[in-house]
Every structure is written in C-alpha cells, then in structure tokens.
Write a structure and sequence with these properties.
Elements lengths: L15 H13 L2 H5 L1 H8 L1 H26 L9 H9 L1 H31 L13 H19 L1 H6 L1 H21 L18 H8 L7 H4 L8 H29 L5 H4 L5 H6 L4 H32 L17 H14 L6 H28 L12 H18 L1 H20 L9 H18 L12 E4 L7 H11 L5 E8 L8 H14 L5 E7 L2 H11 L1 E2 L2 E2 L2 E5 L4 H16 L3 E6 L11 E5 L6 H13 L8 E8 L2 H18 L4 E6 L6 H9 L4 E5 L8 H13 L3 E6 L10
Parallel strand pairs: 1-2, 1-6, 2-3, 6-7, 8-9, 8-11, 9-10, 11-12
Antiparallel strand pairs: 4-5, 7-12
Helix pairs in contact: 1-9, 1-12, 1-15, 3-4, 3-10, 3-12, 4-12, 4-17, 4-18, 5-6, 5-17, 6-7, 6-15, 6-16, 6-17, 6-19, 7-15, 7-16, 9-12, 9-15, 10-18, 15-16, 17-18, 17-19, 17-20, 18-19, 21-25, 23-24, 24-28
C-alpha cells in the first residue's frame, strides 16, 4: 500500500503571502494583461470590456470559493487541486484530473519560456542584425534549464525571487495610471467596433478569459504551506480580488487616455502599454518580463508537486515521490524540466496552448462540482469554515463549461475524452480508496431519496422482481447456489447472501472475518451480492428473525431461498419455516442443484403446473428470468401438467393456450394423461429426467405433517437433475403480468 501524500511533507513551510498570494496574483497579472488588454478595449469599448472582466472574474471567484470550501474541510497535502479532488471525489477521478494537470503545468513552462523570449526579443537592437532563426528555441531552452535548476534546488529561492517581480509588475501598473492621466482624459468609446477582431464578441471573450485563470498557482504549493487550511482560501481569494481590481482599473485608464486612440489600442501587443505609461518601456517591459517569468516559476513549482502526489498515491512510479534534503521533489522537478525542454522542439505551441487552457478549465469544473456535491450530500464530516451554497458552485461549473466550448469546441471534446479515458482506465484497475470521499455520501443521499419516493409509490405487479434473501451457509462450497440466485434477480434486484452462526453473540469474535471471506468468495464467483453474517441461538428461529428484519425503510426481501440439505430434519425445518414465511407474505425457494449439462450449455427448463396455490405464476416468472441470462438464452421453457383423462387434458390445454400468450414469455405447453398403472411421480421422472432445470410447486402441509411432506419432495427430487421447489406467497401470487 502506498503512503498518503499528506505524509510526504517538505522541510520548508510558507505562509499565505509568499506561498499562495504571490504566485497566484503574478500568474493572473501576466501575458494577456500586457499584450491583449488594449486589444480588448479597442474592439469592445469600455462598458462591454468591463462586463467581460466581471463575468470572467466571477467564474474564477466562484471557483476560488469552491476550492476554499473544500480546502477548509480537510488537511490538504501535496498536490494542490489534485489532492482536493481525489480526496473529495475519489482517486479515479482525481487521477483523471491529476495526470492532465501535471502535463498542463509542465507544458506551461515551455509556453511561458517562449513568451518571455518573444518579450525579450521585442528590444532586440537593430544594429545586431536579423534575429537568428534558432535563437528563440535556444533562449527558451536556456530559460527552462535556469528556472528548473533554481526550483529544484529550493522552492524558497524561487518564491522569494517573485517579490521583486511583484514590485516590477506594480510599478508598470502605476506607470500606466500616471501616464494615462498625465495629459488629460477623453470620453471613452462605448460602441463595439470589432476593428481587429472580425470573429466577434465571443472570440474576444475567449482570448481574454485565460487572463483570470491563474489563481490555482498558489493552491499547487499546498504541501509546502505552514497551514494550507488557512492560507489557501485567504491567499487565493485575495489574489482573485486583487486581479479583478487591477483588471477593472486598466481598461478604464486605457479608454480615457489621450495618448493613444481606440484604433491604436486595437492593435495587439505591448506597444499600447509602452506608449501610455510614463517612462515607456523602462517600467513596462520589466513588469512584462517579470510576470511571464513568475508564471513559469509557478508552473515549475506546481507541476512536480502534482507528480509527487500522483507517485505517492500509486499513479506514477514511486521514486518520483522522493524528496531532497531541502524538502523538494527534486526528481519530479527534473522530470518536469526534461519534458518542458523536449517540448521546445515543437516550436510554435499555439494550438496546444488552447488545449492546455481547456484542461485547466476542466479542473475548475471539477473543483466546483466537488464543492457542490459535498454541500448537497451534507455528510456530517463536511464542516468547512467557508460555506458556499451548492447552486453557486454549480453555476461556476456551468460557466467554465461554456467558456471551454467558446475557446475551442474541438479542443474541449478532446480534453474531456482524454480525462474520460483516464478515468475508465483507473476504474478498471479497481483502485481502492484509502480515505472517505463524497461518493459514498452521494449514494447514501440518492438511496434515501429513492426509498422515500418508493414508499409513496404503490408497487404494481409489472414492477415486481425477486429481492432474494439466500441462506447459503458456506459460500465457497455453494457458489452455484449463489450464482443461481443472481440469475433470478438479473443484477437488478437485491441479493443478500446470509450465513448464520449458531452460538452466543458475545462469544463469536470473527464476524468481520467471516463477512470479508464471504465478500471475497462472492466477488470471485462474479456475482453482485451483499454478504451478511448473523449470530443466532437457534437455526430455525434465527432464519425467521433475519428474514423478517432483512431490508431497510420499507424495501425488504420478498423471497427467501434455501439450498438442499441431505438431512431430512433440516428439510422438515425448512418446510416449517416456509409456512411462517407464507404468513408474512414472503416466497420460498428450496433448490437442489445438479447440473445436467455444462454451465452455459443448458437446453430445457420444465415447469410442472399443478394449478394449486398460485405457485405456477412465480415458477413461470423465475424460469423466464433464468432464460434472460446469456448462458440460458437457448433454453426451451416447457409448461407441463398431468390430467386424469382426455377431457381434463383438453380443458388444461385450452387454459394454458389462453394463459401463456398473455404472459409474453414464449413457453411451450404439454398436458400428459396419467396412465392408470403409473403414479404422478413416475410420470414426472420419466418426462423430466433429461431436463436441465425442473420447477415444482410447494404446498403447505398441516402442522405435524412436515415429515411426511419432506419424504414426498425427497421422492420427487430423487429422479431429477436440478430441481427448484417454489412456494408463492407474495402480494402478487396468481397475478403474473
């Protein structure tokens, strides 16, 4: 068993400001703010630009609230968003999100490195000549190596380097404000012009939206924080609020300044900033370079920690979870740097950039969904210090989904397909969770809802199906009996397999061991059933007590099933219990298993229809349910009866001819006239000796007549293969639909 990521804690600890707020706010205030904000204002006008900022920031703010709610409800370990999703929604879904998240952050290192190279080349001196074609890739590779070395050595150094970067970004925004107001103001443009964005409003919105998605950079440092439960919500929400405030200020400054015209704003690039800001490029370019470099540091710090968490949970090689003496996931960092370095060879990554952005957005969808589901389920363990109404989180999920399709519907479908494939793969590995997640609570809530609805719903015969309580004893030796019961309920009803232990409850110590052994044996047989172990003082009274109590909230077993016993006294006991079950409205099935042919090659099912006590309806229904299973689909169902003369034979044939078509089961019928010199038992044995399964009805003998009746059914079963005795006593006996 792997070690929980919560135990893999680094040496250094960071607080809210340095560990969460700084990387988050610097990732938000990045490339798009410098290169595309003027373009947005020049194409949409000021009012619509502010609306775009508010809508985009609202989705991010809701996601930050949801992340804060989930984070304050658990002890967050290494892995950030992956850790929270996997501990809330389960390891499979966490892995489906975590693996693409690692890839996103790793490729982001390459993206930001190329972006930094382009920003640096903006000031390439003309007297140096033309920029060599290989220069961008070589410079990007050098940047990746540098930031990987710094981050792999010490996260503290990488985070502290972001302090002067924050100063540079702040200075560039201040320079923009001073420059915009220095020469007076003008009336901003209100109309949507789409000067350089003929694709329309939603295209502009899609280009801008990634600007607000950087707040999770701080969450990615969760394992390095002194108090993640305290720092994640405060740092993330503060970063989102700061980013929103700056994003509301910058378009106003650009729209009212007289230093550039609306047409000049509509040209993409950093030129508008440098023309508006006081001192021009001297203050703007360091802020731009710093913001890009900070985003690259955030990616190279966050990606390896996701990989570390995946390795600790068994979803990646274990050596990737190792920490250095300084508490850094050094091997995972080198791995991330190597992948980012290899991606440099791809050159232009614009198409992949959209795919990466959408993968990040799928993470936002999942975070919001986790918070909404936790709130809806309302497990007692869900006690966050920041509570978010479920519908608010759900609104955040819906908003992120809409934006994903706006950015690129094909990339959206590809990203969702990738994560679904990962989820299915992890489910097939049958990974067992080692922590409580919200899924169990969700199923409990759904089960309660269904039971409440069922309580007020009158059950009709067309909705009836066997809910079987099987007293199987040793499930290892009676796997065939368990499988037959499963065939009857078609994996749609509820099958409970019960083992009774006769003794005193306080003296039986291995109840859990017996239940786990039953669970393993049932699973090995390929059957879906619920194992149950009950300690009783007496077998007969114990069966009656368990049968009456079995079920929950009005949803009870309606059929009790026994295996065949070689001991006559046990069969007599089953007959007595059948009488009691009938009085409580429960059907009884007693089964003698002896397959006439290889399983999966069955050919014939005989039903002996006596016309008494309404057993025939249930026998016919059970035969039909048995034939629905793949191994029995070729089997013929034949309803047989015995008549004393030809007149009675014609009457019974007419009755069966009228009945069977209405049942829509597709059974044949045969009525045999009993010869005078032969008994009914002899006729039955001769006719059904080669049938694979024979259904026979059970009668209720008078009290004291159990021994004689036990002799009778032993005689009947003696000349047959698999023989199933049925007593129909349910609410719908004789009302087969």
């Amino acid at each position: 068993m792997t070690t929980d990521t919560a135990a893999q804690q680094p040496v250094h600890r960071f607080g809210t400001f340095l560990g969460v707020f700084t990387p988050s706010v610097l990732t938000i205030l990045g490339l798009i703010m410098y290169l595309r904000f003027g373009w947005v204002v020049g194409n949409l006008g000021l009012p619509v630009t502010l609306l775009v900022v508010l809508v985009a920031s609202s989705i991010t703010f809701i996601t930050a609230l949801s992340a804060s709610a989930v984070a304050t409800n658990m002890k967050v370990g290494v892995g950030g968003e992956y850790f929270m999703v996997s501990r809330s929604l389960g390891l499979e879904l966490g892995g489906a999100i975590g693996l693409p998240l690692f890839l996103c952050r790793t490729l982001s290192i390459t993206f930001y490195s190329f972006g930094l190279v382009e920003a640096i080349l903006y000031v390439w001196p003309s007297w140096w000549g033309e920029i060599p074609s290989a220069a961008p890739q070589l410079m990007a590779a050098a940047i990746i190596i540098l930031i990987t070395l710094v981050s792999g050595k010490s996260a503290a150094v990488a985070l502290k380097l972001q302090i002067p970067i924050m100063v540079a970004v702040g200075a560039s925004v201040l320079a923009l404000a001073i420059g915009a107001l220095a020469d007076g103001t003008r009336v901003p443009e209100f109309a949507i012009t789409l000067r350089t964005a003929p694709e329309g409003f939603w295209y502009v919105f899609a280009v801008f939206f990634p600007a607000v998605t950087g707040f999770t950079a701080g969450i990615g440092m969760s394992g390095d924080l002194k108090d993640p439960r305290h720092s994640i919500p405060r740092g993330s929400l503060a970063a989102v609020a700061t980013g929103t405030a700056v994003y509301l200020l910058v378009p106003v400054l650009m729209a009212v300044t007289t230093r550039v015209s609306p047409a000049e704003l509509a040209v993409p690039g950093v030129a508008a900033w440098t023309r508006i800001a006081v001192f021009g490029p001297l203050l703007v370019l360091p802020g731009l370079w710093g913001a890009i470099l900070s985003s690259a540091f955030g990616s190279v710090l966050g990606g390896p920690r996701v990989l570390q968490a995946l390795a600790a949970d068994g979803l990646a090689p274990a050596f990737l979870a190792r920490l250095s003496r300084t508490g850094q996931p050094t091997i995972a960092t080198w791995m991330s740097g190597a992948i980012a370095l290899a991606a440099v060879a791809l050159g232009g990554l614009n198409a992949v950039a959209q795919f990466v952005t959408i993968l990040f957005l799928t993470l936002y969808v999942t975070i919001n969904f986790a918070a909404a589901l936790e709130s809806l389920v309302g497990d007692p363990s869900y006690r966050p210090t920041i509570r978010v109404p479920w519908y608010v989180s759900l609104l955040g999920s819906m908003g992120a989904i809409v934006v994903m399709f706006l950015i690129n519907p094909w990339a959206c479908l590809a990203a969702v397909a990738l994560e679904l494939a990962l989820y299915v793969h992890l489910r097939r590995r049958a990974m067992r969770k080692r922590w409580g997640d919200v899924r169990a609570g969700a199923w409990v809530a759904l089960a309660r809802f269904a039971l409440l609805r069922l309580r007020h719903h009158d059950l009709d015969p067309r909705n009836w199906r066997p809910q079987i309580l099987l007293f199987a004893g040793d499930t290892g030796k009676r796997a065939g009996l368990v499988r037959l019961a499963s065939w009857f309920n078609q994996d749609r009803g509820v099958l409970t397999v019960c083992r009774l232990v006769v003794g005193e409850l306080e003296k039986v110590r291995n109840i859990d061991d017996l239940r786990q052994e039953m669970d393993r044996e049932i699973e090995e047989s390929g059957v879906v059933a619920f194992p149950e172990v009950d300690v009783v003082s007496d077998f007969e009274s114990g069966v009656l007590g368990v049968a009456q109590a079995n079920g929950i909230a009005g949803f009870h077993s309606n059929t009790v099933m026994f295996g065949w016993s070689r001991r006559k006294e046990r069969l007599e006991s089953q007959i007595r219990m059948m009488r009691a079950m009938s009085h409580s409205g429960k059907n009884t099935i007693i089964t003698k298993l002896n397959w006439a042919s290889e399983p999966g090659r069955e050919r014939r099912i005989d039903i002996w229809w006596g016309g008494l006590q309404n057993n025939g309806d249930l026998m016919l229904l059970l035969a039909y349910l048995l034939r629905l299973n793949p191994g029995w689909r070729a089997a013929r169902i034949c309803v047989r009866s015995v008549a004393k003369d030809d007149e009675e034979r014609r009457s019974q044939l007419e009755g069966l001819a009228n009945l069977l078509p209405d049942t829509r089961i597709g059974a044949e019928s045969e009525v045999i006239v009993k010869p005078a010199d032969r008994s009914i038992t002899e006729v039955l044995h001769q006719t059904s000796a080669h049938a694979d399964v024979v259904f026979l009805g059970l009668q209720e003998p008078d009290p004291g007549g159990e021994a004689a009746y036990a002799d009778r059914i032993i005689e009947l079963a003696g000349g047959l293969q698999t023989c199933i005795f049925v007593r129909s006593a349910g609410a719908f006996a004789g009302r087969l639909v």
